[in-house]
Amino acid sequence: MKDQKPWVKPALELGPVMLFFLVFVLKRGETVSLWGQEYGGFILATLVFIPALALATLIQWRLSGRLAPMQIATLVLVVVFGGLSVWLNDPRFFKMKPTMIYLLFAGLLGFSLIARKNWLQAVLSEALPMNADGWRKLTLRMTILFLALAMANELVWRTMSESTWVYFKTFGLPLVLFAFLIANAGLFKAHALPQGDGEGKG
């Protein structure tokens, strides 16, 4: 596996989202005729986003040799819900996609707590070495976070304008996740493993 430049991973992760946002902003309020069907800017942006995300995911896999379960689940749900939106010319399915993703993640993390399995640790331990107690606390907090994000997404897309949802999805959700990481800096420090230690037991 070749060493990746530090900008490659963020570019592949953010590129499809920013492409969706750009197409939506440029075509907002317009209609485009494709295959004998009239599509609005939102559906057109969705149509561009699906292959862009698939391509970015493929490139990440070719560069790293592996994909995180979260990446695979996200791609599958984007293809399913985004495809339904394009096929039925109905943006509601794509707007529901984040809700499904967050509920899926919350369910998996919640089950890992009940089953006493450190699934989050298994995925992120190399990047964030902590002891088992730290991983249990972080898993609980992330379960609550994903449930809150699912509810927030439902509230925004059902009660606010399409443009508001796009801005919320493109900028609001990443900012919430960033704020969550900053807010948990104390937990990361308190439960960090001493340098040279392996993964925490648990």
Automatic annotation (TrEMBL):
Keywords from the named record: Cell inner membrane, Cell membrane, Membrane, Transmembrane, Transmembrane helix
Main location group: membrane
Pfam family of the protein (one): IspA
Membrane-crossing segments per the record: 7-27, 39-59, 71-88, 100-119, 140-160, 166-188
Membrane-topology descriptor: Multi-pass membrane protein
Cellular location(s): Cell inner membrane
GO cellular component: plasma membrane
Keyword check for Cell membrane: yes
Function text: Plays a role in cell envelope biogenesis, maintenance of cell envelope integrity and membrane homeostasis.
Sequence similarity: Belongs to the YciB family.
Protein name: Inner membrane-spanning protein YciB
Organism ancestry: Bacteria, Pseudomonadati, Pseudomonadota, Alphaproteobacteria, Rhodobacterales
Gene: yciB
